[in-house]
Amino acid sequence: MMPWRNFKRFSNKVIKQPGYAARVLTKRAKAYFYYYYGQGKSSLPEAITLFLTHRCNLRCKMCGQWGDSGITKKMSHDSIKEELPFREFEKFIDDVSVFKPNITLFGGEPLLYSRCLDLIKYIKNKKMHCLMITNGSLLNKFAEDLVNAGLDELNLSLDGGKNLHDQIRGMPGLFERITNGLKEVNRIKKERGFVKPIINLQCTIIKDNYRRLDELLEVVKDVGADSLTFHNLIFLGRDLIEKQKFYDKLLGCSSSNWEGFIFKPEIEPEVLYSKIREIMTQKHHFMIDFYPNFSLKGLKEYYENPAYLPSEYPAKCLSPWITAYIFPNGEILPCLNFDYSYGNVKSDNFLRVWNGYSAIRYRRMIKDKGIFPVCVRCTELYRY
Asked: CA-to-CA distance for 293 and 267, rounded, in angstroms?
């Protein structure tokens, strides 16, 4: 029910959150059954991501939204500012609370959404697991509020030591903001006897840091994080975007958001693999992982082969059977980077559209094709 290379990654969840892990396995087993036998229908989703806002206060080099090639920079001012009113989120959470999906808060920077803390409280009042993905720039300001709100997991980006992280993320002083904020979260947790939020640090591997990944190990110890995951870079060539246009036409949608990831990685896989082995052969008092978890051969294919297709993971995407994305305009999407929509939470009931005509059509096509051209380095492809 998961790629074997992800077993260690999932075992970390089992150790830290056994109840959560058991629920995930049960829902994932149903999703796998429907993938093979449901003819485009699916069991109710394991997870839903709420894309709270397009707004962000950083300009990270490799970001597909606001980075050097970022697509959000081309959006209109009104589109960037558009966000769902809190009452719409309340209605949506009420609708889905009957099957208790895991909720991820994402953006942009989710803490820029004015009612973010209220939303976490509302989700937790409905007894659902809640995770936030944040750049950490506002963590010190909201540390106590996030602990009080009952947030389950805090996934935070950290790409290197002080100067390196600030350079990659484009904000002087950001590293200190993050580390001070994390220490404050842990101080409050300890003071109150809380275990949550669990702190997961996320490092994106790019040309600036791949030779220096070991520098983060001391940082993790210093701030008291529970885990550290190194994520292989997401990137595409223009040729894959051109190939994708055939499928976009069939679906009547656009995958232009993937254009934000058109750049060359400039990473030497042999050097990266050597650094990975160096880190993984050491003993650590926290969970550590590389994702996707490639062999040297797989890593070389990933970074060097323009015609790359995954060989060490199943070349099929199960994400549309397992998760959904709610965008700031209310659209219900199967993927972060396609504008193909199942419906809109402002006018449609999620439970109806999840197995409606549009959703079934999309699932049938991606199952038939295995993956679309632009999917080859998407993190969701390697997750399930």
From this structure: 16
